[in-house]
Write a structure and sequence with these properties.
Elements (H helix, E strand, L loop, with lengths): L4 E4 L13 E4 L3 E2 L15 E2 L4 E4 L6 E4 L2 E5 L3 E4 L4 E4 L2 E5 L4 E4 L10 E9 L7 E7 L21 E6 L7 E10 L2 E4 L3 E4 L6 E4 L2 E4 L20 H5 L6 E2 L8 H4 L2 E3 H4 L10 E2 L3 H11 L10 E4 L2 H5 L27 E2 L5 E2 L4 E10 L2 E8 L5 E6 L4 E2 L4 E2 L1
Length: about 400
Amino acid sequence: MKKLFTITAIILMSATGFSQTTYTFTGNGNWTVQSNWDGASIPPSLLPAGSTININPMQGDSCVLNTTQTIASGANLNIAPGAIFIIRGNMTITSVAPTLTTKPITEISVNNAVSGGKIISNGGSFIFSCGVVWDTSPNPTIALSTKTADGFDSDNNFLSYVGGLQSGTTYYLRAYATNTAGTSYGNELSFTTLLPLPSITIGSQTWTSKNLDVVTYRNGDTIPQVTDPSQWASLTTGAWCYYNNDSTLDSTYGKLYNWYAVNDSRGLAPFGWHVPSNSEWNVLAKFLDPLADTTVVFGVQSNIAGGAMKESGLIHWTSPNAGATNSSGFNALPGGGRDGSGVYYGSSNTGYWWSSTTYFGNVWTRNLVYYAGDLYKYNTQKAYGISLRCLKD
């Protein structure tokens, strides 16, 4: 077998992880004839970094470059000693703009989001700038000021934190990378920032003033809606439902979540908010009623705090809606619940809210009822579906 000698373009950045394909010329004649190449595979007009062309015709035969061929820096051209290699076209060793993809957009909040990119090929040249760029119009470019400048890791990934966004606005975003040959962009993605959650400050705490109604976790993953009672009863993962599977109730009462959704590591509360702990519920109770019992294990925690939290009147609450003044602005509504067997109960007469604190395999919750102004503390099974209020970080 003939020994090959090698012409190697200068490597300005490691080609590790980039395309590595070998093309071997073993025929006789023109470069552009498929049958002259092993596997009838002619190399692309731009040979990317990490790929190789072997010129190895039989003795006395020749390889005629009758076209234009560019060899990116970091690619290899190997020519067998004694092989006849005739250039009638053009051969250039050069760098090209990078190729990359845009990472999915996650952690979308009112004013922020997270994305990034992965560099597929450096184009044979050092990448001196990369990040993401965004705008309210499609196809944003680096001419805009709304971009990040990030570094990439050993696996050619980079992470980008996007800030300064307007709430409730749709943005278009794509990753970019720049080398000496120019700038390339990844695939374009779009996302819409969240609207600010309605809130009320009560003492030292800021609470959402309506029940949560999201259908995704913080990272954008979908939370399943489960309507079937037997399926609901068997769940050990996060899910939500409308009370009585009636979507018209959503705008008023929000959604009911099982505790597996509340406790999911991907985060149910939007960014900047969290699920209140049992201790944080106690802080609220104590502010509304200095005599509130924060040590009670089960039952009434306060005789007046519930009334200060409930929406007044009979539009949503069953009569008599005793003690209701809503003096705190908490605006609690009777959203009801769904038990561990998938049965709905309590709409219009009871409201239930999760905490993040477990107790002997169950979870501390707070309950309000139509017939009293009491605030109740109970221990609820994780399979139940009830409402959630969020507390500002």
